[in-house]
């Protein structure tokens, strides 16, 4: 008998993957967590029945949330990741030689624990000497920080459960305070096919706080619809005005200098969400 995992991305649509075996399931203090080995995507992290990352396509999300702002900022030294307990964003941040410290604030320590065990190629840099890992509420950490970071990356789940507060205007205002005077932040902002209203609201809120606000996209096949958006708020640096000499050789599978420019070219129905 074949076993399949299905994520119901809307009440009428889902994505399904054939399972080889279940590696671990647990109800943590905050959410349901599952690690499953799939035929197509390798090991898969699932939180509250939503796909968070897989071994096969994880590089797209992690590269695009990290490298676009890190190449935009002329000298990123101190970087914060809110969420991101699988460690993929941290791995990408550390590819930038200017980075002196990367802080990971993950609310659920079990995500880190099982990512290290079952997704070592993603979580393998969490023990790097430049990394500080905190098991804490990202919203509270932001509220307690002031002019502390060059870049803040919000690698959250969809706005359910513990992540709801990470999609509020008050949180974005707190991020602006936690950033240095030329800081940049990026948040994953879901997909335009099923969550157009969310993207529209996030963009509006960020634009009211940051002088430079941009929406960009990437193709992530295991995320709802495959078309994913990221919202950037920047105090001074425009991602479309990065000088060519800023780009350096980097170990990446999706991100390139050309993609850095092209990802901001939006289909009209997506661009309309920014008006």
Protein architecture, described:
The protein has a 7-stranded mixed sheet, sandwiched between helices. A 5-stranded antiparallel sheet has the order 1-2-3-4-5. The longest helix has 15 residues, at 58-72. The protein has helices at 58-72, 88-93, 109-118, 120-123, 138-143, 169-178, 196-207, 257-262, 268-271; strands spanning 4-10, 13-27, 32-38, 42-47, 50-54, 78-83, 101-106, 131-135, 149-155, 179-188, 212-219, 227-234. It has 275 residues and is α/β, with parallel strands linked by helices. It is 27% helix and 33% strand.
Tell me the layout of helices and strands:
Blueprint: E1 4-10, E2 13-27, E3 32-38, E4 42-47, E5 50-54, H1 58-72, E6 78-83, H2 88-93, E7 101-106, H3 109-118, H4 120-123, E8 131-135, H5 138-143, E9 149-155, H6 169-178, E10 179-188, H7 196-207, E11 212-219, E12 227-234, H8 257-262, H9 268-271
Parallel strand pairs: 6-7, 6-9, 7-8, 9-10
Antiparallel strand pairs: 1-2, 2-3, 3-4, 4-5, 10-12, 11-12
How much of the sequence lies in strands comes to: 25-35%
Beta strand count: 12
CATH fold field value of the largest domain? Rossmann fold
How confident is the prediction overall: mean pLDDT? Answer: 95
| Element pattern in H and E | EEEEEHEHEHHEHEHEHEEHH
Straight-line distance between termini: 50 Å
Strand order of the largest sheet: 8-7-6-9-10-12-11
CATH architecture level-2 label of the largest domain: 3-Layer(aba) Sandwich
Overall number of domains: 2
